[in-house]
Structure to design on (393 residues):
């Protein structure tokens, strides 16, 4: 059962500040100290908050600090990618308790929906067997998620059937869907590189290209929840058909699939790589894992291809910085794991193309949560929805 207001405002305050005091609650909610004490006492009695003792204070009486109780419940978050599922179980305070993985999962493969449901059932069963109280589930999916119905219009969509309702029958607890890039954004904003910021862009460079936007500490979803389709903005006169059906989208030159296409073309044109024997002797598609492994082995051709993508990413990000003037740009996804091979050229292109007066206060960093950002964000969204915390605008 969702937490009623104004108790949810106090819990939300604790999620943003790792705890709160009575004076802080009274000021934030514009209520008397006596009323704040009453609300906090109720939350302590209900098992949501715990008294952590007196805080440090330079002068005057030291107030008591109240924090979320980790054992007040837990939340399950699933992050689905074109090539894997990562799932995490998080306690009420935000610590990851357990993770689940399926590295053989493929979104486009036959039976992928059933495979996702199997992992969901397994995670819920293990949570129940461990005696933990599951409060909510959030599944982060690529593509378009309707912010009103919560349904996916890109994956597992069946006209006339609600995907949320189908999955809720399995979960037995409140369940919601969310876009994967915006889930990464919420996770990175609360627990990763974006902690303490008020405005942030999260660019997800994985097999595809996505983005999340934080404005005034809230994730921007747009009217229908489809904001952030950075990958499907027209950016290149290359005549390459994108997955969305249009030509020249940013994703056609800035993504894992673009990296694969570029490398295949260059190797087949005669350029040398440690992947050359593999590409020229087999019709089996070259995987992103193989490319990433070649980069770790310092393959020059693969590094050059990533650097080319980094330059393109920086050119397009410069425009975003000019538009949004964010405090921070966080780059996540699998290609971000190449580090400065991607971010070095990206920063150079931003310096060249962004207005210096606008961009000088913008930091560009790699995701602090790495490949766990999506499942972390999904867990936090499940918690935000349970406590009634406003997290998007």
């Amino acid at each position: 059962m969702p937490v009623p207001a104004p108790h949810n405002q106090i819990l939300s305050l604790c999620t943003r500040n790792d705890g709160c005091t009575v004076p802080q609650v009274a000021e934030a909610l514009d209520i008397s100290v006596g009323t704040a004490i009453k609300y906090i006492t109720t939350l302590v009695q209900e098992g949501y908050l715990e008294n952590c003792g007196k805080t440090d204070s330079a002068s005057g009486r030291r107030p008591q600090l109240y924090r979320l109780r980790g054992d007040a419940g837990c939340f399950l978050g699933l992050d689905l990618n074109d090539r894997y599922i990562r799932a995490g179980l998080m306690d009420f305070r935000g610590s990851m308790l357990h993770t689940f993985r399926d590295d053989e999962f493929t979104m486009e493969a036959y039976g992928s929906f059933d495979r996702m449901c199997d992992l969901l059932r397994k995670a819920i069963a293990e949570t129940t067997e461990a005696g933990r109280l599951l409060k909510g589930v959030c599944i982060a999916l690529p593509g378009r998620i309707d912010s009103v119905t919560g349904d996916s219009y890109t994956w597992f969509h069946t006209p006339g059937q609600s995907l949320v309702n189908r999955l809720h029958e399995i979960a037995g607890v409140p369940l919601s869907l969310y876009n994967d890039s915006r889930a990464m954004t919420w996770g990175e904003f609360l627990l990763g590189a974006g902690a303490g910021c008020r405005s942030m862009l999260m660019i997800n460079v994985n097999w595809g290209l996505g983005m999340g936007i934080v404005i005034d500490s809230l994730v921007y979803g747009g009217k229908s929840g489809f904001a952030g389709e950075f990958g499907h903005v027209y950016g290149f006169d290359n005549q390459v058909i994108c997955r969305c059906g249009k030509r020249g989208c940013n994703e056609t030159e800035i993504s894992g699939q673009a990296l694969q296409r570029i490398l295949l073309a260059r190797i087949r044109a005669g350029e040398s790589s440690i992947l050359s024997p593999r590409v020229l002797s087999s019709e089996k598609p070259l995987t992103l894992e193989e490319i990433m492994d070649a980069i770790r082995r310092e393959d020059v051709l693969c590094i050059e291809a990533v650097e080319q993508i980094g330059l393109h990413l920086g050119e397009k990000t410069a425009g975003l910085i000019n538009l949004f003037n964010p405090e921070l740009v966080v780059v996540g996804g699998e290609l971000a794991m190449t580090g400065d091979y991607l971010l070095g050229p990206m920063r150079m292109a931003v310096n060249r193309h962004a207005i210096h007066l606008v961009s000088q206060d913008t930091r560009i960093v790699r995701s602090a949560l790495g490949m766990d950002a999506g499942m972390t964000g999904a867990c936090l969204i499940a918690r935000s929805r349970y406590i009634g915390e406003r997290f998007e605008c």
